[in-house]
Design a protein that fits this description.
Length: 437
């Protein structure tokens, strides 16, 4: 997914533009290194994204300029977020709506650069669409004017990535990226989440080994962001979220409920694999879920089929046998061939898998010993159960069993998809279709 990078000249009092104060930034020496920063920035960008006011200023000035920088500015694709601009005359310019920006990020290509455009930046930040801020801060106070962030901006923490002086006049180049947000669960555990998009609230619940940065969950979030405000969180015990012993499924239900509360008090929910089982448990317990979508909750419905227990997985992790816990979960729980697991153990990512081995007991507690729990008949909200046509018989049978247990559910096959190898766009589109129906 492409990143949106906001680049701005800023005063020490946060102003990026003040009427009557034209050219204030050019009164300072930013040196060859500062010039190189701006040249590299525009050279690496795949497109410009602008508000109408900034666009009109650029469109008047840049076509008259020559040189490498001007050639790139004039030739690159430009997108203007405006509801009033009808006939853009600067070459390669397309007028779009704010709701189109999330889709623009999903398109292939290099990153998208935003210059100036304070009101647009504020709207993008509100929707969680800004990936990076590059601020060239000048040692001057203007005392008023247009600020990059408005007085009513929502509180959000940023992570400082780089801080470099440029030139000889005290100009600083600062690069920031948004930090995750947090919500506090009922037991005091801090749960980390990202929020992206705009529209009705959707909360995503991941399965085993995953965090909110998992490519599948992040891809689903990106697919849904053009229509929904998506809350993608780290389940307790992994990523940036905390944990409190002893574990219980009820605590995870409370985590999800806290996310829904942060989202406005009710939300639609998507859960993948064991995250789907957790979402079902939350719905059965009465969490304020309005619609529910799950992808292959990994129950085992075959006769005599049982799954590794939470107790034995927890015992292995507590004994320091984290690799053994992962191996047991993958071979007996996920039905992965031992030789495939052996191949994984030789890969560089294996230590990251072992790092979350203690949470495998959580997955086992959520899913249970195999059969679809009778209590899921208490799920009263409309539900779609997604199942990949290329998944194992066990996963497809479980999806059918869940559908049959719920009073208001339908089964939707996803052609060519498989458990653990699903296309996030395909899942996201199926979820979007159900949530908008």
């Amino acid at each position: 997914m492409r990143k949106i990078i906001v680049s701005a000249f800023m005063t020490l009092d946060g102003v990026i533009e003040k009427p009557g104060e034209l050219g204030w930034a050019f009164k300072f020496d930013r040196g060859p290194e500062g010039n190189a920063v701006k040249m590299d920035e525009i050279s690496e960008a795949g497109a410009l994204l602008l508000g109408r006011t900034t666009y009109e200023g650029f469109a008047q000035a840049w076509p008259q300029q020559t040189g490498e920088f001007a050639d790139k500015m004039n030739g690159m694709p430009k997108y203007v977020v405006s509801g009033t601009l009808k006939d853009p005359r600067w070459e390669n310019t397309t007028v779009i709506a704010l709701d189109d920006v999330a889709e623009l990020k999903r398109q292939p290509g290099d990153d998208i650069l935003v210059n100036g455009s304070a009101k647009l930046v504020q709207a993008l930040a509100e929707r969680g669409l800004v990936d990076e801020y590059r601020l060239m801060v000048y040692p001057i106070l203007l005392g008023g004017g247009q600020r990059l962030f408005g007085d009513d901006a929502e509180e959000a923490a940023l992570e400082l990535v780089t801080a470099e002086p440029v030139g000889s006049d005290g100009v600083m180049m600062l690069t920031y990226r948004p930090r995750h947000r947090t919500v506090t669960s009922a037991d005091g555990t801090s749960i980390a989440y990202d929020r992206v998009g705009a529209g009705p609230a959707v909360v995503l619940v991941q399965g085993a080994f995953s965090t909110r940065h998992d490519p599948i969950m992040a891809g689903i979030a990106g697919t849904l962001a053009s229509r929904f405000t998506v809350y993608n969180y780290d389940r307790r015990g992994r990523g940036d979220s905390g944990d409190v012993a002893p574990y219980s499924v009820q605590r995870e239900i409370e985590d999800l409920t806290a996310l829904i509360e942060a989202a406005g008090g009710e939300a639609m929910v998507f859960g993948g694999s064991s995250g789907g089982a957790l979402a079902l448990e939350a719905a059965a317990a009465g969490a304020p879920i309005t619609k529910l979508a799950v992808f292959e909750p990994p129950y085992a419905t075959g006769p005599g089929r049982t799954l590794p227990s939470a107790r034995e997985l927890a015992a292995l992790a507590e004994e320091g046998r984290r690799g053994d816990a992962v191996e047991l979960f993958l071979t007996e729980g996920a039905e992965m061939p031992p030789e495939a697991v052996a191949g994984m153990q030789a890969q560089p990512f294996w230590p990251q898998i072992e790092a979350v081995a203690h949470t495998l007991a959580y997955e086992a507690a959520v899913v249970g010993d195999g059969p679809v729990p009778d209590r899921l008949s208490e799920v009263s909200v409309p539900t779609v159960v997604l199942a990949g046509s290329a998944s194992s018989d066990r996963m497809r049978d479980a999806a059918e069993a869940v559908t049959g247990r719920l009073p208001d559910a339908r089964l939707t096959p996803l052609e060519g998809q498989a458990h653990g190898q699903a296309d996030p766009v395909a899942i996201g589109q199926a979820v979007e279709e159900f949530f908008t129906s």
